[in-house]
UniProtKB/TrEMBL annotation, chain B:
Family annotation (SUPFAM superfamilies): P-loop containing nucleoside triphosphate hydrolases
Protein name: Phosphate ABC transporter ATP-binding protein
Organism expressing this protein natively: Actinomadura darangshiensis
Role description: Part of the ABC transporter complex PstSACB involved in phosphate import. Responsible for energy coupling to the transport system.
Membrane protein topology class: Peripheral membrane protein
Length: 305, 258
């Protein structure tokens, strides 16, 4: 047993490694690294808590029923009252349309990449393209839709145009998230299903997807949260309006980010208050959607480990 | 129900690697055939060629003939999905579907192949769970998740799931290697019972198990790492264990190997 201790510890100790004493050096290292980890955690938390706190404190002032019931139609920047009804409607419609277009495309792409592509050329090409798409700045997506949809095809500003720009931003994040989740599904389950004589597509639909569902929903929600806060592409494709426009397919529509942008640019304190409340409502909607999605996903999650 | 399998001149490859070489044998219906041999000798690979699960792995391919009664499984007109409905498989690690209840796990093979009639499903689920000696343990909690059962119960659940689609042949790839002796005994009793209806092929590392459950035993070996696995001999289990033809078989069985 003495040979075990030759690698470490003072040469004089011949009795073998002791089980009780940890060397001082290791203890110090342990403490230092532990301290660093906690420090990094706190540092990361500071801006997050600070942002949330500021938004809650400043946004609470105008968090009243009026804010949810009225638009800014015929309300000037310095007036009290006014609300974001038009912007909330706009954002919800735009993000809904975006999700309806982007999620199926993205999930099917991920399924292709994980379940069908193997090491093929096409799979690699798609994977590379998705990587490139992840890096597209949001304003470029907006300019693309502006150039193609509005200028080339001649359509007018509309919520749909904005959704198209957001779709470009949403697809790559959902593809990546879904891909990771599908890769986590153990191969055993696929084989178990194949061994029952179940064709591949049914295996994907009824075994692989349900197993990965929780993770996919989380990925989709993160992507929704991301596109909900986009401003620049919307200004180029939907423009903005102070009035209520319930139809996302014709004419300029408001949205929460552009509402915040517009209100914050006005020097009047009343407008600035509205901007803060807009920000608070936006965060609130995202959190609410997250909770709902988690609740739905949990009911379908794999159970009883 | 049970069918005879006749394998002739079978080779299997993983990409460029020659995994098993020139195997010919006959697997008799309504009996248990055990495959024994050291790790990496191609037993599992060979087993997987019998229901075309081998080709699920990218780059894997097979040469040779596998006749199920008078149909060649590797004929170009044969659909591998259809083959797997006739030749079922139970895996080394119990792998119930984690999102499904006990009931749905057993019904999965039927449901995923389009059977919707509740009465038919109920009937098959009970029959299969009784067949797998699991009915009495789970009949009051069919709606509970399958992953909540113990390891041995999960493996019997997987067997129930496999027999629910009424295959002709049941392949078992070390079905007891992750189980304790009591659960192993339960599975062995089950195999004894199932062999009256099915053709059973079992891969095992446990030679006592092979001696206990099988009627015929095949011994596989490799010449060295990187070399393809070969069938050394196949015969009645009693003969293989008492008086094998080949020296290598005797050495392996008596533990004098290598």
């Amino acid at each position: 047993m003495t040979t075990l201790s030759t690698g470490r510890g003072p040469a004089g100790k011949a009795a073998g490694p002791s089980l009780t004493s940890v060397s001082a050096g290791r203890k110090v290292k342990d403490r230092v690294v532990q301290g660093l980890v906690y420090l990094a955690f706190l540092l990361a938390l500071v801006p997050l808590v600070s942002v949330l706190w500021t938004v809650v404190v400043n946004g609470a002032k105008r968090l009243d029923p009026t804010f949810f019931q009225f638009s800014m139609n015929a309300v000037s920047g310095s007036d009290k009252g006014g609300g974001a009804y038009h912007a909330i409607i706009g954002t919800l419609e735009q993000v809904l349309i975006t999700s309806l277009i982007a999620v199926p495309i993205a999930v099917l792409t991920a399924i292709y990449l994980v379940e069908y592509a193997g090491n093929g050329r096409l799979g690699k090409l798609i994977s590379f393209t998705v990587d490139v798409m992840t890096g597209i700045p949001s304003i470029v997506a907006g300019l693309f839709v502006l150039a193609l949809w509005l200028l080339t095809f001649g359509f007018d500003y509309s919520g749909l145009a904005g959704s198209l720009a957001l779709t470009i931003l949403m697809i790559p994040t959902v593809v990546r998230a879904t891909e990771e989740m599908l890769k986590l599904v153990p191969n055993d389950l696929r084989e178990a299903s194949y061994a029952l004589g179940v064709p591949r597509w049914r295996t994907v639909c009824f075994v692989v997807l349900p197993t990965a569902m929780t993770g996919i929903v989380t990925g989709v929600m993160l992507a929704v949260a991301r596109v909900m806060g986009e401003t620049a592409p919307l200004l180029l494709t939907i423009f903005f309006t102070k009035a209520i426009n319930n139809d996302p397919f014709t004419g300029p529509q408001a949205s929460l980010p552009t509402f915040i942008w517009e209100q914050a640019a006005d020097p009047s304190q009343n407008s600035i208050d509205r901007a803060w409340t807009g920000a608070l409502v936006l965060i609130g909607i995202i959190m609410l959607l997250n909770l709902v999605a988690r609740f739905v996903a949990r009911r379908k999650a794999p159970t009883g480990r | 129900m049970a069918k005879r399998i006749e394998i002739s001149g079978l080779h299997a490859y993983y990409g460029g690697v020659h995994a098993i070489e020139d195997i010919s044998m006959t697997v008799e219906p309504r009996s248990v055939t055990a495959f024994i041999g050291p790790s990496g000798c191609g037993k599992s690979t060979f087993l997987r060629t019998l229901n075309r699960m081998h080709e699920v792995i990218p780059g894997a391919r097979v040469e040779g003939k596998v006749m199920l009664d008078d149909e060649d499984l590797y004929d170009s007109s044969v659909d591998p999905v259809a083959v797997r409905r006739v030749v079922g498989m139970v895996f080394q690690r119990p792998n119930p579907f984690p999102t499904m209840s006990i009931y749905d796990n057993v019904a999965a093979g039927l449901k995923l192949n389009g059977v919707r009639r509740k009465s038919r499903l109920d009937e098959t689920v009970e029959e299969s769970l009784r067949g797998a000696n699991l009915w009495n343990e789970v009949k009051d909690r069919l709606g509970k998740p399958g992953a909540g059962l113990s390891g041995g119960q999960q493996q019997r659940l997987c067997i129930a799931r496999a027999i629910a689609v009424q295959p002709q042949v049941l392949l078992m790839d070390e079905p007891c290697s992750a189980l304790d002796p009591i659960s192993t005994l339960a599975i062995e009793d089950l195999i004894e019972k199932l062999k009256t209806q099915y053709t059973i092929v079992i891969v095992t590392h446990n030679m006592q198990q092979a001696a206990r459950v099988s009627d015929r035993t095949a011994f596989f070996n490799i010449a060295g790492t990187g070399k393809p696995g070969k069938l050394i001999e196949i015969d009645e289990t009693s003969k293989i264990f008492a008086n094998p033809e080949q020296k290598a078989t005797e050495d392996y069985i008596t533990g004098r190997f290598g």
